[in-house]
TrEMBL record:
The keyword Amino-acid biosynthesis does not apply. This is Cytochrome P450 1A1-like. Keywords: Heme, Iron, Metal-binding, Monooxygenase, Oxidoreductase. It comes from Phallusia mammillata. One of its GO terms (biological process) is progesterone metabolic process.
């Protein structure tokens, strides 16, 4: 008994010390396993719970570049609970995304990624999640988008869309006083119209309230996805009301966008005639029929439509804002562009796509804006599909990979005076463009996950710049001098964009605009958007869209009737072959007019 008493007494004396020692041991074990389970790659010290999230600040691309200077071109950081490996130089990025393309082509299994398009589509999936079907669908998207740029008729059609939207944009921008000139909004609406014309054969009036709603839906979606990635890596953040709201808004926007795409798809299927392709959605439907090996369901077509619409609309409207910002900042470059255009067009006509080779300076400015702004500073996050080695480091399977395009584009080792804006770096001494300028910088990523819209974007943007500045010019606003500052969202957009737009060749502009109104552009105008369609795509109201041929002449009041007429004509046509590449119904238009 006395022995037991002594033991208790002994333990009592040391109780506090023991508890502290056990706690310390437990903590040390935790810390040890926290660090030992991490890949052996240098990087900043990660704080518990938040990791290095706070070190990124509001200019993550610059903070990540600064970390690369300290830890090397491959480093490890932690965002919330998640380890992220950041790749920073061209060499490292090419070694990973090109030389080991397959291994680095995964996507992290973030919650938000799984929710978009209900886990379908290519953007947020990979071969790991969808198998061969992912590769097949990516091939389909590349092939279909390539058609726009490779065939002269479809390229011509694309350029007509660009011309139409650019002239409307000029009208909208020049018609506004500087106080009411909400350039960002006008540009977003213009670009959404262009993408809608390509995708769905629709264009909408700028004043169309529901269309503006759709555009703001997309804008909000961009913001929410930006914050969504914080929730993906720090799920506990949802206890903060601001972030709880983000989750709700994300669900709401996701559903609404999905319903909109379902409605467009239904509309297309109801009026679809095999062998007649009016727009991209028709090409998808045709592909799902002609290429059964890919096994593309109606849901897959809807998801691919969402992918291309979402990926194209935000990026194009953002780069156009940067083009405007750079050209009101560097007014001498804007003047050189106008001079170059005037030398060929002589202030008498608008450019055609074939004039492009006469505008090397304009094109060099576009490439330099891509490089210098690096407005897509990182790609969408990648992940590894199996364990591998990069440089001297072992990289485990399922590692999350950030590809820092900004660091590569501003790499002093790769570029002379990398921080200077200098379009001449893309020109030879005789003023011609250097060979394959777009392969020298990173904006569209590279390797298996490379953006399939790169070629079409460059073609479209060149034609946009040439058309816009051949008739209009921009002056900076003296009350708000331009600054080359961006705010980080899904992509990086200018912090502020204030200018005055003026028409500089009124006669060319007036002629072109009136010509637009006479020559019917084969797009349907202002179909009812019906954002409130139910999840399964059934319309709550029986709203049939009205189709217009061009800007003035309208089909009969019932679009379906009108299209049925066209379809009957198609069927009647003797050997009935319609060129599949004729995206957006040029042939339909000709037949109907005849
Ligand atoms: C200035 C314009 C654009 C830029 C800078 C851009 C840039 C990018 C980037 C950085 C990615 C991520 C690649 C990766 O994760 O490694 C991407 C993906 C994608 N982009 Fe673009 N993009 C542009 C326009 C477009 C357009 C116009 C379309 C469609 C018409 C498009 C369709 C896509 C698609 C479908 C993906 C997903 C590819 C995949 O996950 O494998 N993009 N884009």
């Amino acid at each position: 008994m006395s022995l037991l008493f002594k033991v208790v007494e002994f333990l009592d004396d040391f109780k506090a010390e023991m508890v502290i020692s056990i706690l310390l041991l437990f903590l040390l074990r935790k810390i040890f396993s926290y660090f030992s389970s991490r890949p052996n790659i240098p990087g900043p010290f990660p704080w518990p719970v938040i990791g290095n999230a706070l070190s990124l600040g509001d200019k993550p691309q610059q903070s990540m570049q600064a970390m690369a200077k300290k830890y090397g071109n491959i480093y490890l950081m932690k965002l919330g609970n998640v380890d992220v490996i950041v790749l920073n130089s061209y060499k490292v990025i090419r070694d990973a995304l090109q030389r080991q393309g397959r291994v680095f082509s995964g996507r992290p299994q973030f919650n938000s990624f799984r929710q978009i398009s209900q886990g379908r589509g290519i953007v947020f999936n990979s071969e790991l999640s969808l198998g061969q079907k992912w590769t097949d669908m990516k091939r389909v998207v590349i092939k279909l988008l390539h058609r726009f740029t490779s065939k002269s008729e479809t390229r011509g059609l694309l350029c007509r869309h660009v011309r139409t939207e650019t002239l409307h944009l000029v009208k909208e921008l020049c018609g506004k006083s500087k106080e009411e000139n909400a350039a960002e909004n006008i540009i977003q609406v213009g670009v959404a119209n262009l993408v809608c014309a390509m995708m769905f054969g629709h264009r909408y009036e700028y004043s169309n309230k529901e269309f503006q709603d759709l555009v703001s839906l997309n804008r909000e979606f961009g913001k929410v996805i930006g914050s969504g990635s914080q929730i993906d890596v720090m799920p506990w953040i949802k206890v903060i009301p601001k972030f709880a709201n983000v989750v709700k808004t994300f669900d709401f926007l996701n559903n609404r966008t999905n319903n909109w795409m379902i409605a467009r798809s239904k509309e297309h299927r109801q009026t679809y005639v095999h062998g007649v392709v009016r727009d991209v959605v028709d090409t998808y439907i045709a592909e799902s029929i002609d290429n059964p090996k890919v096994n593309m369901t109606e849901e897959d077509v809807i998801a691919l439509t969402t992918d291309v619409f979402g990926a194209g609309q935000d990026t194009l409207s953002t780069i156009i804002q940067w083009i405007f910002l750079y050209l009101i900042y560097f007014t001498d470059h804007q003047q050189k562009i106008k001079d170059e255009l005037d030398r060929t067009l002589r202030g008498r006509r608008l450019p055609t796509i074939d004039d492009r080779h006469n505008f090397p300076f304009t094109e060099a400015v576009l490439h330099e804006i891509f490089r210098h702004s690096s407005f897509t500073p990182s790609t969408i996050p990648h992940s590894t599909t199996e364990p591998t080695t990069l440089g001297q480091y072992h990289i485990p399977e399922n590692s999350i990979i950030f590809v820092n395009q900004y660091a590569a584009n501003r790499d002093d080792g790769a570029w002379e005076n990398a921080d200077d804006f200098d379009p001449y770096r893309f020109l030879n001494s005789d003023g011609s463009l250097v060979h394959k300028p777009h392969e020298r910088y990173l904006s569209f990523s590279t390797g298996i996950r490379k953006c399939p819209g790169d070629e079409i974007s460059r073609l479209l943007l060149m034609h946009f710049m040439a058309t816009f500045f051949s008739v209009a010019e921009l002056e900076p606003d003296s009350d708000h001098p331009p600054e080359l500052e961006g705010v980080y969202n899904l992509s990086m957009r200018p912090k502020q964009l204030k200018f005055t737009a003026k028409i500089r060749h009124p006669q060319v502009y007036a002629n072109a605009f009136s010509h637009l109104e006479k020559v019917a552009v084969p797009v349907r105008e202002n179909p009812t958007l019906n954002l409130d369609k139910t999840q399964n795509g059934e319309s709550k109201a029986n709203n049939k869209p009205t189709y217009k041929l061009g800007l003035e002449s309208e089909f009969s009041d019932n679009d379906f009737e009108a299209l049925e007429k066209v379809h009957r004509a198609v069927r009647r046509r003797k050997n009935g072959k319609m060129p599949l590449d004729d995206i957006n119904g040029n042939e339909i238009y000709k037949l109907y007019i005849k």
